[in-house]
């Protein structure tokens, strides 16, 4: 005859309390195999294995009804595990969002109003997130089909399993896109781009002219800065097609200062930084030192 165990012996064998075993037994999950003449419960080795499975499933978060269906083979354990794993994935994503929000609030000293906004942004579905950024890009780029490539480079795509850093970056980026002042600034940048006054290749050429001056520590108000300013203006005039002519004090110099001040908006630099974090791109090269040096040098040369 197979050995039978009292509820106390079963508790010692499994590490569960007598109260817990009685709870599972009363609910039909681990009914006793037999009872003693005095009516005490008796459990078999099969009951020990069944109780171990119940404990494992409970620790994984399954509810009692689901566990009963698995034990009674009404539901396949593999199907239940897959469904529960998916549910846990959603919970993990939610917890990551909450952690990102709380971390951002702690680091930024956010107001209750900012906390509410961040919470709303974090709870958006993938479709809603895409709509929010599409609305921003529609607002600043307009319907021009020529901006298709630019639009792709400015689109943030949060992955299915983002890191806390990506979540925090996306929340800040989404918050930034809702600021009317920022939208106006980006519209002006786009207008400058569209007019060919400040194309990316021009920025690259200006950077190549100014970077040696920054490395060498040449002050923007020094005589040594003058030939660099002339070279920058030559690059600009070649780009906009104004031809040869006036020097640093010309209208070209004043226009270039205006363009660089618009491009030097710290909010735009931050957008590009956040975009790189969310999309897992290499960090963009900071252009603020180049812009600031060129603006000051153009001002002194004028």
Radius of gyration: 33 Å
> What is the mean pLDDT?
84
If strands are numbered along the chain, what order do they take across the biggest sheet?
1-3-2
In total, how many beta strands?
A: 3
Helical content (DSSP H or I, runs of 4+): 55-70%
Largest β-sheet summary: 3 strands, antiparallel
Are there runs of 5+ residues with pLDDT below 50, and where?
242-249
Oligomer: single chain
Strand percent estimate: under 5%
Number of domains: 3
Give the H and E element order. Answer: EHHEEHHHHHHHHHHHHH
What would the principal axes of the Cα set say about the shape? rod-shaped
Cα(first) to Cα(last) distance is: 106 Å
Kindly name the structural category. Answer: mainly alpha
The helix count comes to: 15
Would you give an account of this structure?
By secondary structure, the protein is mostly helical. A three-stranded antiparallel beta sheet has the order 1-3-2. The chain is built from 15 helices and three strands. Helices cover 69% and strands 2% of the residues. It folds into three domains: 5-75, Multidrug-efflux Transporter Regulator, Chain: A, Domain 2; 85-189, no CATH class; 196-301, no CATH class. The protein has helices at 7-14, 18-26, 45-59, 64-71, 77-108, 112-122, 126-141, 148-153, 164-177, 180-194, 200-216, 226-240, 251-263, 266-279, 288-301; strands spanning 5-6, 34-35, 41-43. Strand 2 (34-35) and strand 3 form a beta hairpin.
């Amino acid at each position: 005859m197979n050995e039978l165990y009292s509820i106390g012996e079963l508790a010692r064998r499994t590490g569960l309390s007598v109260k817990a075993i009685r709870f599972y037994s009363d609910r039909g999950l681990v009914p006793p195999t037999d009872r003693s003449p005095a009516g005490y419960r008796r459990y078999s080795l099969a009951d020990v294995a069944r109780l171990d499975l119940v404990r494992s499933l409970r620790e994984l978060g399954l509810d009692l009804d689901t566990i009963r269906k698995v034990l009674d083979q009404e539901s396949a354990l593999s199907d239940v595990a897959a469904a529960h794993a998916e549910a846990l994935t959603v919970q993990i994503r939610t917890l990551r969002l909450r952690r990102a929000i709380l971390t951002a609030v702690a680091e930024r000293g956010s107001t209750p109003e900012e906390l509410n906004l961040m919470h709303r942004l974090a709870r958006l579905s993938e479709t809603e997130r895409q709509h929010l950024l599409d609305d921003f890009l529609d607002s600043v780029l307009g319907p021009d089909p020529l901006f298709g490539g630019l639009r792709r480079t400015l689109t943030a795509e949060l992955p299915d399993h983002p890191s806390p850093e990506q979540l925090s970056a996306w929340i800040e980026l989404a918050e930034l896109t809702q600021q009317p002042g920022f939208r106006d600034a980006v519209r002006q940048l786009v207008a400058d781009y569209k007019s060919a006054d400040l194309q990316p290749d021009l920025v690259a050429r200006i950077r190549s002219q100014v970077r040696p001056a920054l490395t060498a520590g040449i002050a923007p108000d020094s005589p040594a800065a003058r030939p660099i300013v002339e070279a920058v203006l030559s690059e600009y005039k070649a780009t906009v097609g104004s031809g040869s002519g006036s020097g640093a004090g010309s209208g070209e110099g004043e226009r270039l200062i205006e363009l660089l001040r618009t491009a030097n908006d710290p909010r735009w630099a931050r957008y590009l930084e956040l975009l790189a974090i969310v999309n897992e791109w290499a960090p963009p090269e900071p252009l603020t030192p180049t812009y600031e040096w060129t603006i000051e040098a153009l001002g002194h040369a004028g």
